[in-house]
Design a protein that fits this description.
The protein is an alpha+beta fold. It is 34% helix and 27% strand. A five-stranded antiparallel beta sheet has the order 2-1-5-4-3, sandwiched between helices. Strands 6-7 form a two-stranded antiparallel sheet. The chain is elongated and about 75 Å long. It starts with a helix and ends in a 14-residue tail after the last helix.
Amino acid sequence: ALSASGDSLWDCDLITQHTTRNDRWKELRGYDQKDVRVCPMDWTDQLHPDDRNRVIEAFIAHCEGRSPAFREEYRVLCKDRGYRWVSDRGEVVARDHEGRATRIVGFETDITPRKWLEEERQKFVSLAENSPEFIGMCDRDFKPFYVNPAGLTMIGLDGLEAARRVKVQDAFFPEDQA
């Protein structure tokens, strides 16, 4: 089931700082079995600088019991020196008699394709929002679900809610409405 999911698995002994990872964890980063040394700093060294502090703080917060689980999306450095996005989910599975975390286990999912799509969508949104031209979209029933600021200004509306009360064909010249 784990293999079919495409997820990678990690299991960290927080006392010895030894981390066991499955082959998928290594493949995700472009490494062969022989390439990856087992070292407590591997994971933090691979975090993107813009993500590092947030991710480490979330990991510590969970280990200290300040959050119910470790759940973060972040970029990891790969063998080719590029970055891939992962969704990482982990939970402490063992604590000592004083309540300190001693073992945490988790899964990573490669979310790079989703993040690329989100970036492309954001480019479109930025282009549409900043365009001086009318850009609008409607569903098959001709109910608007998006009109950019320039479009709202052109037809004299103060927001999307106002645009939703207008028939799309009413935004066109009478001779073009059909």
